[in-house]
Design a protein that fits this description.
This protein has 10 helices and 14 strands. By secondary structure, it is α/β, with parallel strands linked by helices. It has 2 domains: 160 residues, 3-Layer(aba) Sandwich (D-Maltodextrin-Binding Protein, domain 2), CATH 3.40.190; 88 residues, D-Maltodextrin-Binding Protein, domain 2 (3-Layer(aba) Sandwich).
Length: 262
């Protein structure tokens, strides 16, 4: 009995020692000691991250790449779903190691987060109801209303051009508000709108302008202890770019290769 207790105490001390080393090490060491990469994602933004209608399983472009990154680090992915406006704050609070959710790189965000190299390049689009003939360009948003996710670059663009933004959680809500005439427009991701129109060809919406997009990359928190993680992620992404995996996944989910900057 005494030997059993002593063994348990020894194991407990060893585990405490491993835990302490992981806490003291850099973020990559902590992830590998834990055995999981904790990934923040929405789970409701097709084709980036969504639930399969038949199986209910989480899937999408960023889900596949997030899984690829985790396995490249030698761990398993652990996806945690949250609303868009709490994803980056989840990185701040160390709830997530990384966000895989089509996050556009901006200089403002780069002041607070360390980004991976871009893995795709997307355009933004200005979308209105099918019978709207008043809004032709982004400048026509002055005094109008849009629907967008809070804290998104899309909402920021609409507000910069004089629109009043109603905050929503999903693209489905956005389209519904457009079709019902409750908002005048939305600025959104070209890939997401294209995907929605493929799934809902009768949707009463139309694209009226294509806008320059942001490089899309993966953010992690800034710090001296995160550089090895971002370096490892960049190596994994570059390998996937070189062997064609990124392009293949882009075509699978977007119907086109979005991996080239031009």
């Amino acid at each position: 009995m005494k030997k059993t207790i002593a063994l348990f105490l020894t194991l407990a001390l060893l585990l405490c020692g491993v835990s302490a080393l992981a806490e003291e090490g850099d973020l990559l060491s902590q992830i590998q000691a834990r055995g999981t990469l904790i990934i923040g994602t929405e789970g409701n933004w097709s084709p980036w991250t969504y639930h399969d209608m038949e199986t209910g399983e989480l899937t999408g472009f960023d889900v596949e790449i997030g899984t690829l990154i985790a396995h490249g680090l030698g761990v398993e992915p652990e996806f945690m779903e949250a609303a868009w406006d709490s994803l980056l704050t989840g990185v701040d609070a160390k709830r997530f190691d990384i966000v895989c959710n089509g996050v556009g790189y901006t200089e403002a965000r780069a002041e607070k987060y360390t980004f991976s190299t871009p893995y795709v390049y997307t355009h933004k689009v200005l979308v209105v109801r099918g019978d709207n003939e008043d809004i032709k360009t982004i400048d026509d948003l002055n005094g109008r209303t849009t629907a967008n996710s809070a804290s998104s670059t899309y909402a920021a663009i609409a507000e910069e051009h004089g629109a009043t933004v109603t905050y929503v959680d999903t693209l489905g809500e956005t389209v519904q508000m457009l079709e019902q005439g409750r908002v005048d427009a939305t600025v959104n991701a070209e890939g997401s709108i294209d995907d929605y129109l493929r799934e809902h060809p009768d949707a009463n919406i139309k694209i009226v302008q294509y806008l320059e997009g942001d490089p899309v990359a993966y953010p992690i928190r800034k710090g001296d202890d995160t550089q090895t993680l971002i370096d490892a992620i960049n190596e994994i992404l570059e390998a996937a770019r070189q062997d064609g995996t990124l392009a293949e996944l882009s075509v699978k989910y977007f119907g086109k290769d979005l991996t080239a900057a031009e």
